[in-house]
Design brief:
It comes from Falsiroseomonas selenitidurans. Its EC number is 2.7.13.3. By secondary structure, the protein is an alpha+beta fold. The protein folds into two domains: 131 residues, no CATH class; 152 residues, Heat Shock Protein 90, CATH 3.30.565. The protein is built from nine helices and eight strands.
Length: 360
């Protein structure tokens, strides 16, 4: 119906003489049709004039509908109401029938005019909404471009900083200073890799969220390329597919980077072979991240083999996710008991506007 009214909008712009002339022709056509179908029978003298009134209201405006109503009433009274060929109304039922027809005709013309205005307003609002949506899409595209440029620049800056620290480390003779700078360089490079991985996910779906399985698989592949090199250590990933907001993926990725890095440094001395497995499991109310190896394990009574900074960073990142970091041997009593790190963090602690959904 709204399409019909919109197509008739051009008819409402016709000159007055054209609109009212066409209305007169419509009423005349209804009269001829009445004569052809029922002749001069007095039954239903006005009924077959209603199509002309409706057509005038749809095609033109309320004024033409009123004119069509009055003209139809006059013609019906003249031709079909006794005494015929007379406009006299001598009986109360005839007056009531005439008044009812006039009321229905005026109401129909008024209703059609209201529909014209409502549909016209709706069309204007749709056009406004389309323009607003186009503006929003344009703004979102511009913001996405700016965000992508910012992420690229930040990643490049991080990579340059990591390279600078590595070069600076080579100028120091003190082994502790070199180790500290190289460690700092490695952490900055890890943050750059994670940002790059997140940016690729954002470019793929345009959303500030990632699929946990694809993110961890890509991150561990990056770690394998960057840290394992030619060592006989195999890295594997087993992760459920869940949607994570990027604000949670960053600390999750940093934890994996720290724990895998610790395993590579301490679990397999003398280039021993081994494996490191990363897993993320979705439970009804929580996520469970595990990073385990089959290396020499950790002796609580032995002095620490490093500064412990990586573990402290991992614990702080786990707390940021709302969880805690725990460690335990994988196979107690064996020559190589291994070590399993576990972080359990709630699935429902996302911030405003963030979502955490499982995927099949």
């Amino acid at each position: 119906m709204d399409r019909i009214f919109m197509r008739m909008a051009a008819m409402r712009a016709l000159p007055v003489w054209a609109r009212y002339g066409a209305t007169a022709l419509l009423v005349l056509a209804c009269l001829l049709g009445r004569l052809a179908l029922l002749g001069h029978a007095t039954a239903m003298p006005y009924m077959l004039f209603m199509p002309g009134i409706i057509a005038a209201g749809v095609l033109f405006d309320r004024g033409t509908g009123f004119v069509a109503t009055v003209a139809s009433a006059g013609l019906g009274l003249w031709y079909f109401v006794p005494p015929q060929r007379s406009l006299a109304v001598t009986e109360l039922p005839v007056l009531f029938e005439l008044a009812t027809f006039l009321a229905i005709g005026f109401f129909t013309a008024t209703l059609l005019e209201a529909l014209h205005h409502a549909i016209s307003s709706l069309a204007s609002e749709r056009a406004e909404l389309s323009r607003a949506n186009a503006d929003l899409r344009s703004t979102a595209a511009e913001r996405g471009t700016l965000l992508s440029e910012s992420v690229h620049r930040a990643r490049n800056d991080l990579q340059r900083l990591a390279s600078t620290l590595r070069l600076k480390a080579g100028t120091y003779e003190d082994p502790a200073a070199r180790a500290a700078l190289n460690e700092a360089s490695g952490r900055i490079a890890a943050l750059a890799r994670i940002n790059g991985r997140l940016d690729r996910h954002r470019e793929e779906d345009g959303k500030a969220q990632v699929d946990s399985r694809g993110f961890l698989e890509g991150l561990v592949a990056d770690l394998e390329d960057a840290a394992v090199d030619m060592r006989p250590v195999a890295l594997s990933v087993l992760a459920d597919s869940s949607v994570l907001p990027m604000s949670r993926a960053v600390p999750l990725g940093l934890i994996v980077n720290e724990l895998v890095g610790n395993a590579l440094k301490y679990a397999f001395p003398d280039d021993a072979e081994g494996r490191i497995a990363v897993a993320l499991r979705r439970e009804p109310e929580a996520f469970v991240l595990t990073v385990e190896d089959d290396g020499i394990g950790a002796d609580p009574a032995a002095p620490p083999r490093g500064s412990g900074l990586g573990t402290r960073i991992s614990r702080a990142l786990a707390a940021q996710l709302g969880g805690k970091l725990h460690s335990a041997p994988v196979a107690p009593g064996r020559a190589r008991p291994g070590l399993r790190w576990t972080v359990r963090f709630p699935a429902g602690s996302a911030g405003p506007g963030e979502s955490l959904h499982s995927r099949p």
